[in-house]
Amino acid sequence: MPLSEKQIQNMELRKKKILEAAMGLFATEGYEGTTIKKVSVAANVSFGSVFTYFKDKEALFYTVVVEPLTELKERVLFFDETSADPLLETKQMLREHFRAFAEMNRYLQLVVQVVGQHERYADVFKELDEFHDVFRGKVGKLVQNGQQIGVFKKQDPLIVATLYTSLLIGVRLNSTDNRYSDVWEQYAVTALNLFAPTEKVTDKGLS
């Protein structure tokens, strides 16, 4: 007998609770310190329920790290690297990127774990690395666009993009503020200097 809509919704809700609990544990206790038992307790589900969705801890870890990439892509790849006004596009991009990263502390802790041990988590790292290449490449094209129009000074676009993506992660990991606040707005203002705009950047925001 096929599952009812309510049963399907309950299963999706249970899976979401498991993933949220697992992300918190993997981020704070690491891969070795996290067990299926701990996940089931934190998610308030039975031990066997976890295996309904994931065959083992490795599969759970893979999903916890890779599944959020879909939302992350939507939040950070929205900008138009071919914009006729690359300076304005960059300002809007900075604001939205810092807003997104302000809300992703636990997830980025996991990302850093994977990158730091990329040989151990080869399959997961491959997904992250491919996303980073796309992200960095698109930012680099925006930088190049701005240089061609004359709103950014000449420098290596890929180096600028690499420094920028590294800054986003670094600021997130070094901040305890999980909300987008005035301080994050100032981070975004200062980050604009990485792109070397030819006009003077003030502390009045990114408008």
UniProtKB/TrEMBL annotation:
Keywords: DNA-binding, Transcription, Transcription regulation. It comes from the Bacteria. Gene3D superfamilies: Homeodomain-like, Tetracycline Repressor, domain 2. Pfam families: TetR_N (PF00440). InterPro entries: DNA-bd_HTH_TetR-type_CS, Homeodomain-like_sf, HTH-type_TetR-like_transc_reg, HTH_TetR, Tet_transcr_reg_TetR-rel_C_sf. Residues 35-54 bind DNA. Residues 12-72 form the HTH tetR-type domain. One of its GO terms (molecular function) is transcription cis-regulatory region binding. This is TetR family transcriptional regulator.
